[in-house]
Amino acid sequence: MSGAKKRLLSGMQPSGNGRLHLGNYEGALKPWVQLQDQYEMYCFIADWHAFTTLAGTDVSIADQSRQVALDYLSAGLDPEKCAIFRQSDVPQHAELAILLGMLTPVSWLERVPTYKEKREHLENYEGGGEVGASYGLLGYPVLQAADILIYRAHAVPVGKDQAAHLELSRAIARRFNFLYNTEYFPEPDAVISEVTGVLPGLDADENGKLRKMSKSYHNAIYLSDTPDQVAERLKNAFTTPSKIRKTDAGIPEGCAVCLLRKLYDPAEYNVQWEECRNGTRGCVQSKRETTEVINTFLEPLRTKRAEYENDPAELDRILARAAEKARATAEETLRGVRQIMKIV
Ligand code: AMP
């Protein structure tokens, strides 16, 4: 990791069942892997953030964080190039969040669209958590700003759904700099990767429209799925509702199985699409083939995952070494903050 490289910060929550899915891979992990040669990279596991939905449950965040670490590594993040660590191993994130919280107006936080959505979800739906919408949920973007600014990161890879959060981190950095008449925090830039867009999940809403792949919809294929689990999930996947017999015409553009086939078999999907459309290929065959294609894609990830699963001490070492590096960088930033704020 060269000192001349710009710093990039990214992370994901070990929420839900702690497993990352193909949507997370396409939208986040894959672009991160592509960025790791270019930047000094910090990829953290946002275990504190996961408590916005898991507080009061008996879920083991520690176990789930290990699963996320395995997902990161199996997807190709290289611990030699990129620091992979848990947020809770770097308490400096929390100290900075407290300080930044003092200068963040509540109105900024209430305006964040994901706050409104999540609040409604937590208050109205089963599985929303034991606590409902907490102070921590409202303050989530402050902790997120701290996660980024504690490394004085120049760049953050973002999906479209996170643009508002990054905007807020930038605003908080600007506010700190303005209030203390300093240029201490760089405003982190969004690195928008060339992502194909949102990956659809395996189900549809009440209008027959595909929903995004998401762990909260239980419509995902996980990177850690076995070949049989992939087959089982695809067996139950949404296809064209009016295609009951093989000879009925399908609509591949609106079918989860066909869209996944296209993504993971770009060279040959068109024959399947054509035959689905003209009623010469049935959904059972299409599902079987898409299962094969996805399992082929996941095979190298499974091999890599198994390496680390079989050597838990090595995983511990990777996380500990990265946390140590992160703490050193973070503490350096905090020393400056404490001086600027005249705490010391
Ligand atoms: P989440 O756990 O939903 O906050 O997602 C973590 C990361 O994965 C974010 O960068 C999202 O943009 C990305 N992501 C999640 N679901 C999908 C999806 N279905 N398609 C593409 N990217 C996704």
Structural account:
- The chain folds into two domains: 7-158 and 160-194 and 312-340, HUPs (Rossmann fold); 200-303, Tyrosyl-Transfer RNA Synthetase (Orthogonal Bundle).
- Helices cover 52% and strands 9% of the residues.
- It is built from 13 helices and seven strands.
- The protein has a three-stranded parallel sheet with strand order 1-2-3. A two-stranded parallel ribbon has the order 4-5. Strands 6-7 form a two-stranded antiparallel ribbon.
- Helix 1 (22-35) links the parallel strand 1 and strand 2.
- The longest helix has 29 residues, at 312-340.
- It is globular.
- The two termini are 32 Å apart.
- Adenosine monophosphate binds at residues 12-13, 23-24, 26-28, 159, 161-162, 198-199, 212-214.
Ligands, deduplicated: adenosine monophosphate
Q: What number is the mean pLDDT?
A: 93
The residue ranges in which pLDDT falls below 50 over 5 or more consecutive positions are: none
Major sheet: arrangement of strands: 1-2-3
Tally of discrete structural domains: 2
CATH topology of the largest domain: Rossmann fold
Radius of gyration: 22 Å
What's the CATH first level of the largest domain?
A: Alpha Beta
Strand fraction equals 5-15%
β-strand number: 7
Percent range of helical residues: 40-55%
CATH structural architecture of the largest domain? 3-Layer(aba) Sandwich
